[in-house]
Input
Amino acid sequence: MRHMLENQRIRPTSVIGPLGEPLTLESLPPGETRRWVVRRKAEVVAAVKGGLLTIEEACERYSLTLEEYVAWERAVDRSGMQGLRVTRLQHYRDLHKRQLKY
Output
């Protein structure tokens, strides 16, 4: 019995969101979200970091690639919610410019 419990992951019912509000699975952006504003991205990152969702569950629920999710998390870690303001197009342009330098 004890061994079974050790293997079960205990998940919180809520975590603190990017604006200090409680986030639950029900309050996260809907799975069919296609317009990703900064707040929604930050909520998904907070949910994963807090243990509400695994990275795999977030990617599946929101049809994200692992690279997309990791880019969001890295942006939040580096610059907070402001880091998520850079558009995908800007990101790829900057990446391309850097690659051309080398």
Q: What stands out?
A: The first strand starts at residue 15 and ends at 16.
